Automatic annotation (TrEMBL):
It comes from Saccharibacillus kuerlensis. PROSITE patterns: SAM_MT_RNA_M5U, TRAM, TRMA_1, TRMA_2. InterPro entries: MeTrfase_TrmA_AS, MeTrfase_TrmA_CS, NA-bd_OB-fold, SAM-dependent_MTases_sf, TRAM_dom, U5_MeTrfase_fam. The active site is at C673. CDD domains: AdoMet_MTases (cd02440). This is TRAM domain-containing protein. Residues 62-120 form the TRAM domain. The keyword Transferase applies.
């Protein structure tokens, strides 16, 4: 995760609240404000499966549309939907938790899986809690508020472990978790990570945290699903897992496949409204992440292989083609990603599942995991928050009208209708207050809201930011006009009603697009930036620059990155996706020299400014693609001891992985926002002579399905 100035906010998926754009953008080929990892949940867009194309009824299945079925929920997919089996057929059910028994109505069927709606909860999971958000069932931004937080942490750890094993074919070792009575509890790769009372690490990253109760421990085990031993002999679980993989990961371009036929990335499936993934200020809720690039610049993601036929293109290095060209048996059977979003539904059917061990769907068992040694990779318990609420420092709110009245909030699930709301409980209270103030002022001034259908109306979005460390606040008005009517009245009212505001900006976006920000931003009043700290490092945050939305957990994440880098003061470090320099500047405190590279020019400019305001002179930054710049550095004699990568959701570029293997640093630290592409890339690096020793999950976005992870790899072969 990184601060990518000028990247807007398409970025990494993770809790957003107040609709910010989401799903980390690929950030690979546009220099105009396309954030790789923006800040969270799709800008006000619910997770509904809207506007999907008419489906022809598939005959010969155990169930049909509108059937009433009873299901035992045996797992949960990456979208937070429960996974059940009806006569061997996999059904995904929103709101259902593992370990529950439900009655449900079948909504849609596809060849190898379908969707159902829960009618009655017959037996509740011990992990089930009452979601505190009043609009949880409508918003969709926080997908798992109804799951106990301890269970959320264990489930997220398991997502990482499962991806390493299933996609990367890597061996994940068991570990010992301390129980409440001091005894060691064997925590296998799935089932017992909580033991009876495993430790939840708080925001400081220390293990002196809250002990989980026995009930929560059991809930965590239920949420994680069967243990690895149980999975190996459970054909039903294998088949359901395979279908879940196809539905949720086949669209992630795991094999460097095209991400969407309609020029919208299926990573947008992760980008939910008003809560949800970390996102991008340059994206709207409906087109986020890479779509921000594609709509704005017409760029398409590089294609290094075909999930449909398992072959690689000329752009794919041989080792990558070998690593990713197999395991596509399901694709041959026509298994495609489901229609999980209104704007990606057309693309979903055209993207086949790739190398995700989907042969299990035919009743087989996936290939055994490979490992550098018998010990395998350590995946410790997820580092969570002591208080997993009110953690977001930025909100991005789409504006609309209802009965002639200006409103702002989120898109109702399954529609583009904006529902007004006053609070989001994963947002900092100051953000709620700023948004409400702007709405009230807009109503008083008679401001109209932008209508995406007609292209008329003025106010498109309100973006607000608060710096946790300094308390400084920023308000950004995004309009459909180069001129802001009644600007002086806006300024007077905002400065009067928003205590601590330091910056009021106007962004102009006159294009008929879902991208949030336009190219022009003007300061109406105050400063161009506000300032915040991550640890001891001070950062300047502009209207369009990306800054991590959960500052407490960002410090945990970056602290773990620094720990894994193992710096003594003598090392040369390369930060391959440096953004505005957040990780680079952290590393520079302990390294001899740090070189950062980033595709977005504005981000590099901010990185240099941030180095200057912190008095850091041993870090330098260059604009360009990592896969182009780093080989040039090598020719110049720059030999890194450590390479840090923090890529977008699509993972590392294939050529960058080859470059890392060729340069053979002592250590590689991989910061990931997508366990699936992390696992894929670790497999390549392991085949290139590195050994993965640890993968630490970090909960950057509580109440959502998104999880970060930091992996440590060490070089095994000699130069």
């Amino acid at each position: 995760m990184k601060n990518n100035s000028g990247r807007g906010n398409a970025g990494k998926s993770g809790g957003q609240g107040r609709g910010g754009g989401s799903g980390r953008n690929s950030g690979s080929r546009t220099a105009q404000g396309s954030s790789r990892r923006g800040d969270g949940g799709r800008q006000g867009s619910g997770r509904g499966r809207t506007a999907s194309r008419p489906q022809e009824e598939i005959t010969g299945l155990p169930v049909a549309k509108n059937d009433e079925v009873q299901l035992d929920i045996i797992g949960m997919n990456h979208s937070g939907e429960g996974v059940g089996r009806a006569d061997g057929y996999t059904l995904f059910v929103a709101g259902a938790l593992p370990g529950e028994r439900i009655s449900a109505k079948v909504l849609m069927t596809k060849k190898q899986y379908g969707y159902a709606k829960m009618n009655t909860l017959l037996q509740a999971s011990p992990a089930r809690v009452e979601a505190p958000c009043e609009i949880f069932d409508r918003c969709g931004g926080c997908q798992i508020q109804h799951m106990d937080y301890g269970a959320q942490l264990e489930w997220k750890r398991q997502q990482v472990a499962d991806s390493l094993q299933r996609i990367g074919k890597l061996n994940v070792q068991t570990f010992e978790a301390e129980s409440a009575n001091g005894a060691s509890t064997n925590a296998a790769s799935t089932n017992g990570a909580f033991g009876e009372a495993a430790l939840m690490k708080d925001a400081t990253g220390l293990e002196e945290g809250t002990r989980v109760s026995t009930e929560t421990a059991e809930a965590g085990a239920h949420a994680a699903g069967p243990s690895e031993a149980e999975k190996q002999g459970n054909a039903a679980y294998e088949a359901a897992s395979a279908a879940s993989s196809a539905a949720n990961e086949g669209s992630e371009a795991i094999g460097y496949a095209p991400e969407a036929s309609s020029e919208q990335p299926l990573q947008a499936l992760e980008e939910t409204g008003f809560g949800g993934g970390e996102g991008d200020e340059n994206s709207d809720g409906r087109i986020a992440g890479e779509a921000a690039e594609k709509v704005a610049g017409g760029a398409t993601a590089p294609t290094f292989g075909s999930a449909a036929d398992g072959t690689g293109t000329d752009a794919a290095p041989n080792s990558l083609a070998k690593a990713f060209g197999a395991g596509t048996s399901a694709a041959a059977d026509g298994m495609s990603a489901p229609e999980l979003d209104a704007d990606t539904s057309a693309a979903a059917d055209s993207v086949s599942a790739s190398e995700l061990s989907i042969d299990a769907a035919a009743g087989g068992v996936s290939a055994p995991a490979l490992g550098a040694d018998a010990g395998g990779i350590l995946v410790p318990p997820t580092l969570g928050m002591s208080d997993p609420w009110r953690y977001r420092n930025k909100a991005q709110v789409p504006m609309g009208e209802e009965n002639g009245r200006l409103i702002g909030g989120f898109y109702a699930r399954g529609s583009h209708r904006i529902v007004d709301m006053e609070t989001c409980i994963i947002q900092h209270e100051a953000n709620d207050e700023m948004v409400e103030a702007v709405k009230e002022i807009g109503r008083e001034l008679g401001i109209t809201a932008y209508d995406e259908e007609t292209g008329r109306g003025l106010l498109r979005h309100v973006v607000v930011k608060v710096a946790f460390a300094t308390g400084e606040k920023m308000v950004v008005l995004v309009t459909n006009s180069d001129r802001l009517p009644k600007a002086e009245q806006w300024i007077a009212a905002i400065t009067e009603r928003v205590p601590g505001v330091k910056s009021i900006c106007h962004n102009v976006n006159t294009r008929q697009t879902n991208v949030i920000f336009g190219d022009i931003t003007r300061v109406l009043w105050g400063e161009e930036v506000i300032h915040d700290y991550i640890g001891d490092i001070k950062f300047a945050i502009s209207a369009r620059s990306f800054y991590q939305v959960n500052p407490a957990q960002t410090e945990v994440l970056y602290g773990k990155t620094l720990e894994y880098a193992g710096l003594t003061g003598n090392e040369t470090v390369i930060d391959a996706y440096c953004g505005i320099g957040t990780i680079s500047l952290f590393l520079a405190q302990k390294a001899k020299r740090v070189y950062g590279v980033e595709i977005v020019k504005e981000a590099i400019e901010d990185a240099r400014k941030n180095a200057e305001i912190n008095g850091i002179t041993n870090a330098e930054f260059e604009v360009g693609a990592s896969e182009d710049v780093i080989p040039r550095w090598k020719e110049q004699g720059i030999t890194p001891d450590v390479i840090v990568v923090d890529p977008p959701r699509k993972g590392c570029d294939a050529r960058l992985l080859e470059t890392i293997i060729e340069m053979q640093p002592e250590r590689v630290v991989y910061v990931s926002c997508n366990p699936a592409t992390l696992a894929r890339d670790l497999r390549v690096l392991e085949d290139g002579g590195f050994k993965t020793t640890k993968v630490q999950p970090v909960d950057m976005f509580p109440q959502t399905v998104h999880v970060e992870a930091v992996a440590l790899l060490t070089r095994q072969n000699s130069k």
